[in-house]
């Protein structure tokens, strides 16, 4: 057991897979010599050499196209898109090419690749370097989408993503990079499509993702002091989605809240709310409530950013008010 | 600066005429078997595309189609020069490039007809023809994207030390999109074994390319920006294409890096099936119809002493193959309804939840 930061866990997960499989290569802007702008790939160049850890020009389409072509022909690339906002400049490669090619070729082409990307706000980077775009990816048939919230999950889900024969978008939360936690020694391999109950509770189910998981957990601790016992589920994987874990919880608690960093419209929580209403309506004792960032770009000033992204306080207050009404 | 379009009304630009001499490559050092192969391939593409056009006009093929009529020499020249395990990347105008790798006419035509015996089971269609077992790694319908993907296949070949080369075909219109420039720089930086082939048919869809491009030669004049040698060839002469392909493939295989080839050609028809191509000067269309790659090649073989009966026999064999493919494709079952829900994921299914 070692204390590992979230950013170190990213490198450990990639290294674990590169050690195991010569076909795994890493490509992206500043990922090699600089070890990544967020230092999530530090040490990998020294360990695996420039043939397998490749610095690229600022050419997001070229990076993802290269990953796709390599995945079609026997490699298992991990490509980095530095900030997830930059998906907008290479979304064609992701959506029209990577996501559709297996289906369009009737299964002739497999694309075992991972696109890792720094996602989300809380670092005061402003509207073009802070978005939560995991719901863009979730809306595209053919992409698997994960977003871990703990260092251990980072290692295990990275391993699962690399070993998947399908393309996986791996959203690292920038606001979690510096967080540290105990990570077990030895190989860690997790399973895509599985949610985790982080805190059991009786009164309500709170479903969260990424940075919203620790905030929901702190809110839950505070609510516990006021006699409210909520269960917190870390979704971890949007596609595939572990509906069973969520609805089983709703069956026990009777209430459902989602905590989403994405702007309001068509956030991932809307899909979960829809599923709950379709399939667990009679388990619900009250309305499903979504706690989200308002439908705005993120402001840069710390006071404003803190105001709009769901906080421990706003999560707790919303849940408490809803349960008391 | 004046905008190019201000110089002339739409459709009244200067005609670009083909080169005049069809005998230039008569004495090229290409053996007769290879030349007969080149001829047969061009005939296959020509007759297949004519049949595809007929089936479209009969409304048996739905959607759209982008034919290579008039552009066969490029697909044939490269297809014959490529190693069996090399990779092809084509655009939505990809029927000829698919046939060039030896993919059967029946599965291609059945795919156009939306049948279960289609190359992609009816799930891809005309614009996405792919046959991995033939090295045909796909037809891509978003301009520019597949240049970057071809780089990836070339990177993989380089990494594995396989000696394979990726050949990527695209049109003149592609040279003005960002992905083209990203891909060329990327290929040059890593000296990837990739050959980029611009099929310059002078028109990007419905607009003459010279009106909306800053340089005269849309691909060749960009080569220097990426440290590559400008290569402009006659794309209607299969021998010129073949020799260019042999050299570029050898260069890529030797580790010397990518090439960018601009092959000047002309499409006999419009951009796609709905387009009669009326924006082209009549004299230009007539001149290029006369400078036809299949006719040029047949003439050369005749001058080299090939018995016309032998060429007629090839034509007839190809015609019979097209008829047979039409029959087999038309007789194909419709895709089973359940197939719409398969092969999204590697497990064969399309489930997104438990």
Q: What would you note in describing this structure?
A:
The complex is a heterodimer of chains A (325) and B (354). Chain A has 325 residues and is of the alpha/beta class. Chain A folds into 2 domains: 2-183, Thiamin diphosphate (ThDP)-binding fold, Pyr/PP domains (Rossmann fold), CATH 3.40.50.970; 196-324, Rossmann fold, CATH 3.40.50.920. Chain A is built from 12 helices and 14 strands. The radius of gyration of chain A is 19 Å and the shape is globular. The model of chain A has no long low-confidence stretch (mean pLDDT 98). With 354 residues, chain B is of the alpha/beta class. Helix content of chain B is 40%, strand content 10%. Chain B is built from 11 helices and 8 strands. Chain B has helices at residues 32-57, 72-81, 95-100, 105-112, 145-160, 178-189, 220-223, 238-253, 282-290, 293-303, 308-330; strands spanning 87-91, 136-140, 166-171, 194-200, 203-204, 207-208, 231-234, 259-264. In chain B, helix 1 packs across helix 11 (308-330), helix 2 (72-81) packs across helix 8 and helix 5 runs parallel beside helix 6 (178-189). Chains A and B meet through helix 3, helix 4 and helix 5 of A and strand 2, helix 5 and helix 6 of B.
């Amino acid at each position: 057991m070692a204390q590992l930061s979230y950013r170190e866990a990213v490198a450990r997960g990639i290294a674990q897979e590169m050690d195991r499989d010569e076909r795994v290569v890493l490509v992206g802007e500043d990922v090699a010599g600089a070890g990544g702008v967020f230092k999530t790939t530090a040490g990998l160049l020294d360990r695996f050499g420039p043939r397998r850890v490749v610095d690229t020009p600022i050419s997001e389409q070229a990076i993802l196209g290269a990953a796709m072509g390599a995945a079609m022909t026997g490699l298992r690339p991990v490509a980095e898109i530095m900030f997830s906002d930059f998906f907008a400049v290479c979304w064609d490669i992701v959506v029209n090419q990577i996501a559709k090619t297996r289906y369009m070729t009737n299964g002739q082409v497999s694309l075992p690749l991972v696109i890792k990307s720094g996602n989300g706000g809380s670092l005061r980077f402003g509207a073009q370097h802070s978005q939560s775009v995991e719901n863009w990816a979730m809306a595209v048939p053919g992409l698997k989408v994960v977003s871990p919230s703990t260092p251990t999950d980072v290692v295990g889900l990275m391993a699962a993503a690399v070993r998947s024969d399908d393309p996986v978008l791996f959203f690292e939360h920038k606001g979690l990079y510096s967080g540290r936690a105990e990570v077990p020694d030895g190989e860690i391999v997790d399973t895509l499509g599985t949610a985790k109950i982080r805190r059991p509770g009786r009164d309500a189910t709170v479903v969260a993702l990424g940075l919203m998981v620790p905030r929901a957990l702190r809110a839950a601790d505070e609510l516990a002091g006021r006699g409210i016992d909520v269960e917190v589920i870390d979704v971890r994987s949007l596609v595939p989605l572990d509906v069973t874990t969520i609805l089983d919880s709703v069956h026990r608690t009777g209430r459902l809240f989602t905590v989403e960093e994405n702007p309001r419209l068509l956030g991932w929580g809307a899909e979960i709310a829809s599923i709950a209403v379709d399939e667990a309506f009679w388990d619900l004792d009250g309305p499903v409530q979504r706690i989200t960032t308002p439908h705005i770009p993120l402001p840069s000033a710390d006071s404003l950013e803190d105001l709009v992204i769901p906080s421990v306080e706003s999560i707790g207050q919303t849940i408490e008010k809803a349960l008391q009404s | 600066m004046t905008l190019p379009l201000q110089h002339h009304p739409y459709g009244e630009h200067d005609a670009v005429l083909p080169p005049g001499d069809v005998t230039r490559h008569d004495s090229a050092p290409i053996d007769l078997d290879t030349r007969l192969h080149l001829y047969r391939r061009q005939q296959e593409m020509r007759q297949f595309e004519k049949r595809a056009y007929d089936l479209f006009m009969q409304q048996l093929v739905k959607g759209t189609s982008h034919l290579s009529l008039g552009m066969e020499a490029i697909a044939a020249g490269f297809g014959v020069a490529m190693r069996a395990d090399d990779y092809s990347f084509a655009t939505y105008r990809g029927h000829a490039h698919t046939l060039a790798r030896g993919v059967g006419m029946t599965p291609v035509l059945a795919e156009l007809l939306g049948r279960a015996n289609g190359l992609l089971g009816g799930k891809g269609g005309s614009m996405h023809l792919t046959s991995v077992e033939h090295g045909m790694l796909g037809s891509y319908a978003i301009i520019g994207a597949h240049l970057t993907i071809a780089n990836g296949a070339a990177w993989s070949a380089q990494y594995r030390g396989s000696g394979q080369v990726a050949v990527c075909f695209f049109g003149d219109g592609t040279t003005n999109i960002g992905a083209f420039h990203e891909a060329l720089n990327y290929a040059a930086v890593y000296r990837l074994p990739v050959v980029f082939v611009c099929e310059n048919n002078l028109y990007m869809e419905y607009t003459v390319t010279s009106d909306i491009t800053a340089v005269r030669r849309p691909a060749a004049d960009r080569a220097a920006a990426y440290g590559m040698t400008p290569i402009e060839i006659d794309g209607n002469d299969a021998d010129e294409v073949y020799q260019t392909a042999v050299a570029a493939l050898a260069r890529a295989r030797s580790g010397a890096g990518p090439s960018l080839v601009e092959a000047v050609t002309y499409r006999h028809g419009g951009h796609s099936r709905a387009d009669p191509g009326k924006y082209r000067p009549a004299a230009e269309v007539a001149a290029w119809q006369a400078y036809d790659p299949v006719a040029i090649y047949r003439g050369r073989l005749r001058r080299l002493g090939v018995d016309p009966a032998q060429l007629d026999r090839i034509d007839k064999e190809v015609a019979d193959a097209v008829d047979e493919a039409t029959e087999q494709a038309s007789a194909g079952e419709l895709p089973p309804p359940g197939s719409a829900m398969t092969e999204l994921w590697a497990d064969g299914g399309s489930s997104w939840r438990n």
